[in-house]
Amino acid sequence: MPDFSVFSDIFSFSFMRYAFFASICIGILCPTIGIFIVLRRFSLLGDTLAHASLAGAATGILCSGNPILYAIGYSVAAGAGIDLLQSRFPRRSDLTLAIVLALSAGIAVTLMSSGLLHANAESFLFGSILTVDRSDAIAILVLTAAAVLLTFLLRYDMIYVAFDEVAAKFAGVRIRAVSFLFSVIAAASVAASIKILGALVISSMVAIPVASALQFRKGIRATAVISIAVSVVSAIGGLFASYALNVAPGGATALISVFILLSVILILRIRAKITGQS
């Protein structure tokens, strides 16, 4: 049986304080970009950018540089590449993601299996709270603030592009500029999150909280608030579960987010049946 008494002194460790703060930021950051990713039917974008980030982190370790900075650079390049490939395959967004995913996964697997890395890259694959430091927390805070601000300023343009690009073009929206900027924001956000969540499950925080919020069939603002709430609960719950059970935080966070989604679906279905009977 897990010993949950450890929670009494959980914040006496500096890495847990930093991880807790970073988890809250990630809980806000991921669904902020995730809601527009889901609306654009780009749900696998998170996985694609996560693999690009993993390739960047592995390159950073190989070059004795900062893995997070390399991860951000790779994921931003991947986001820009996806945006450019969209013009070549305008009706094949899944193919665009598959191309970039294959390239990123190829680089990551090749480097990680080469034996040339002088440090363990598994923390970026599965996530680790032990590696989170003050600089990571500050970087995630800055990215969260920037992403939330830019998303707020561009929210109407992004909603236009997400629902109807043709109408957005006639409305005077600079579709290419908005899409490119959004790809860069999403890429940087995913890259900043992989150190805690891990590349394998980052999409759970990007898409699943939004899926939970969409079940309520509310407006865009309510959907954003609900998805952020679900995401923050999942991130913090995953962090505590990781500490108590000695498991990777990414996996625990993914399981909690899926559990919340299934619970929401079940509760709403039961409520609908009761309302229909009455």
TrEMBL record:
Any one Gene Ontology cellular component term annotated for this protein: ATP-binding cassette (ABC) transporter complex
InterPro entries linked to this entry: ABC_BtuC-like, ABC_TroCD
SUPFAM superfamilies: ABC transporter involved in vitamin B12 uptake, BtuC
GO biological processes: response to zinc ion; transmembrane transport
Topology within the bilayer: Multi-pass membrane protein
Cellular compartment(s): Cell membrane; Membrane
Pfam families the UniProt entry points to: ABC-3 (PF00950)
Keyword list, A-Z: Membrane, Transmembrane, Transmembrane helix, Transport
Positions of transmembrane segments: 20-39, 68-85, 97-117, 137-154, 166-190, 223-245, 251-270
Family under the similarity heading: Belongs to the ABC-3 integral membrane protein family.
Name of this protein: Metal ABC transporter permease
Native source organism of the sequence: Mesosutterella multiformis
